[in-house]
TrEMBL record:
Protein name (database record): Rhomboid family intramembrane serine protease
GO biological process, one term: proteolysis
InterPro entries xref list: Peptidase_S54_rhomboid_dom (IPR022764), Rhomboid-like_sf (IPR035952), Rhomboid_protease_S54 (IPR050925)
Keywords: Hydrolase, Membrane, Protease, Transmembrane, Transmembrane helix
Species annotation: Streptomyces triticiradicis
GO molecular function: serine-type endopeptidase activity
Membrane topology field: Multi-pass membrane protein
Amino acid sequence: MGGPDEGRGGGTGGGPAGAEQMIAEARKAFFVMFGFLAVVWLVQLANYADHYDLSRDYGVVSGDVTTLPDVLTAPFLHWSWAHIESNSGPLFVFGFLAAYRGVARFLGLSLLVAVTSGLVVWFFEQGNADTVGASGLVFGYFGYVVVRGIFDRHLIDTLIGVVMAASFAYMLTVAVPGTPGVSWLGHLGGLIGGLVGAWLFRDRRLRPAAGTGTGTGTSAPPRDPANPRADLHKELGDLGLL
C-alpha cells in the first residue's frame, strides 16, 4: 500500500492504491449520507409526535428577520411523511455522489446550499409561507454533481455529471415558477448554491505531469517496464480514472 497521501483527491495514478482510495472515499460518503438521513428521519419522528410544531417554529418565513437563522434548520424538517419520503431517495443519491470526493468539502457545500436556498426563499417568497424541507439540498447536490467534473478537470466526474443531467433533467421543472404547493424558489436557490459550490470547492491542486509527482509533494509510483499494464495504468491515472 502507498503512503497516506498517495492517490488523495482521486486524480493520481497508482493502480491498486488508486482503487483502494476510491473504495475508501465511497465508504465514507455512504456512511455520511446514511447518518445524515438517519438524523433527518429522527427529526421527522419528533416533529410528527409534536404535531409538526418544529416545522412551524423553525421554518423560513419570507421577510421575517427572526427566521433567518432557520435557514440552517429548515432542511431537516418536513410537513408530512410523503414529504420526507419524496426527498429521501434523491437526497441520498445526490448526497452520496457529492460527498464522494471529500467529506470536508461536502460539509462546506451543504452549508452553502442551505444558506443560498433559505435566503432566496426569505427574500423572494410571496406571502407568509413557512418553508421547510431537504429539497433545496437535493437541488444543490444535483447542480454540484453535474458540473463538478468540469471545474475539477476530472473525466469520470464529468461523465457522471453528464449521466445525472440527462437522467434527472426533469427535476428542473420544479425549479421554475408554475408548480403549485412547491417552493420552486428554494429549489432554485439550492441549485444556484450547488453550482457556485462546484467552483468554490474545486480541486486546486495541480495534476501530475507525465513521469512527475502528484503536485502535492508526493512522488508518483515508479514505473515498472515489466508490468504489461503499466502504460494503461499511467493513461488511466492521467485521465483521472485511477
